[in-house]
Amino acid sequence: MTCDEAEVLLHALIDGELDAGHAREVESHIADCPHCTALMRDYREMSKAMAGADMRYSAPPALRKRIEAALPQPKPAPNRRAVLRGFAMGSAVSAMAATGLVAIVLRRGDMERIQSEVVSAHLRSLQAGHLTDVISTDQHTVKPWFNGRLDVAPPVVDLTALGFTLIGGRLDYVDARPIGAVVYKRRQHVINLFVAPTSNTERRPARIDTVRGFNIRHWSDGGLDYWAVSDIGRDELAEFGEKFEATARTNREG
Amino acid sequence: MPPKASDDPDKARRFREAALPYLDDAYTLARYLLRNADDAEDAVQECYLRAFRHFDSYRGPAMKPWLFAILRNVCRAEYARRATAPATTIDDAPESAEQTPLWREAQETPEAQVLREKDSATIRRLVAALAEPFRETFVLREIQNLSYREIADVAEVPVGTVMSRLARARAMLRSAWLAEEEQPK
Fold it and tell me: Which of A124, A141, B5, B176 is in Cβ range 3.0-4.6 Å of B102 for a Cys bridge?
């Protein structure tokens, strides 16, 4: 073996990468060669110094953080896309949740839209000549007038004795359907009572909302939806509603 | 249907467990290859993102050399970007290396005159002064403890080339080492 060969192979010897046969050859050359012996001694010394030295660098914490942040998180927070995918995959739970959500949204949207239409109808009625189609303070005149014009005739009750004067009836349109409007007056204030059939036959207690400055008292009873609209105060409108409900019930039972 | 790779949290978890323990190793290699802390950070980050993208095709067994092979390619792209520094690449021919005696650089460095003991910083500096591709081979062997076979795979050269490069690297380092010992205080 020549020194040129040995100078390469002695590194493999140091690194333990030589097979037994080559290792013996290199070792025997070094034993007979002062030059290669000196090299071997220097390299071993260098390796020792390297092993004792701190040759390594530590990754900065910021680098670790950046890499961590760039990887998908182990427990990803559900984003909108994931929720939608949940629906799309047809999981029963999410499908029910979706349906419920849509129903709530629609009901709420419907209610607001109908309230808005009811107020618009009320405003239209206040323009000259639009308030009543049939003018009568007599409930027995107004009620028959609705028959034949609507599938379900609204109850018409006389509340004059209770402070609310019946002045007539009118056909109007709310939610793209013809709807009956019974018109009352409280002093100079007009109260439009819109009445429409509903599939819900349960009695639904009244609630009062204010839309565009008008109060609306809404309730359901006996398969009919009621919206009383006026610029009178909430208390007076509540009083009107309660008296109407009580009287209509008495008439129905009587 | 397998979940989309990039959205698979389990893949991310497995990658973390397999690859993140070698972050210091990767950063160390990048520091020696690029000789610049900021560039090393960028290279390691890019390396890990690439590694994650290709983690599906990783078949092992050794994660460290696999990461290093990716990191080396990232660093080579960085060399290419540094087209203004042609001296960073030296071919394997002994003559050309002889033309760049490293001890002379050490001599000219002011710190060399005050450092006689080989402390860690000095050795790091001597190693960092080695020319490529010898520095790469030397660091993979001496600091990262890769086998010749693994180094050959990372550097994409035959094992024989690894051996000759390593012999050259150590010979160059020895010269610089001795030159420094001859420095008067």
Answer: B176
Distances (CA, A) of A8 to A17, A49, B133: 12, 21, 16
User: Residue B139 burial by CB count (10 A; 0-12/13-18/19+): exposed, middle or buried?
Assistant: buried
CB contact under 8 A, B170 and A43: yes
Across the interface, of B31, B163, B178, the residue whose CB is closest to A57 is: B31
- Does the beta carbon of A47 lie under 8 angstroms from any beta carbon of chain B? yes
ipTM comes to 0.75
Instruction: Say how far apart CA B25 and CA B67 lie, in whole Å.
Output: 10
CA proximity to A170, closest of A226, A124, A238: A124
Q: Which amino acid is at B43?
A: A
Cis peptide bond upstream of B61, omega within 30: yes
**Which residue from B minimizes the CA distance to A58?**
B24
Quick one: pLDDT band at residue A135, thresholds 50, 70, 90?
confident
Residue A25, φ and ψ in degrees, nearest 5? -60, -45
- Name the more confident of B138 and A248: B138
- At A18, list the tokens: 């030589």
> Where residue A109 falls among pLDDT bands split at 50, 70, 90?
low
The pTM (predicted TM-score) of the whole model is 0.51
> Among A9, A53, A67, whose Cβ lies nearest the Cβ of B48?
A67
- How many residues can be counted in chain B? 185
> What angle is formed at CA A90 by the lines to CA A84 and CA A96, rounded to 5 degrees?
85
CA distances from residue A235 to A126, A211, A238, A242 in whole angstroms, order as listed: 22, 16, 5, 10
Most B CBs within 10 Å, among A5, A13, A55, A68, to test the B interface: A55
Phi/psi class of residue A83: alpha, beta or left (left: φ > 0; alpha: ψ in -120 to 50)? alpha
Kindly state whether A111 is in contact with chain B, defined as any CB-CB distance less than 8 angstroms.
no
**Residue B131 to residues B33, B96, B102, B111, Cα–Cα distance (Å):** 10, 11, 9, 20
**Residue A42: alpha-carbon gap to chain centroid:** 75
Alpha helices (H) in chain A, listed in sequence order: 3-14, 20-32, 34-52, 61-70, 80-88, 92-126, 139-146, 234-253
Given this model, what pLDDT does residue A49 score? 85
Helix (H) or strand (E) holding B114: none
Q: Which two tokens stand for residue B165?
A: 């490069």
B166 Cα distance to chain centroid = 13
Residue contacts between A and B (CB atoms, under 8 Å) = 103
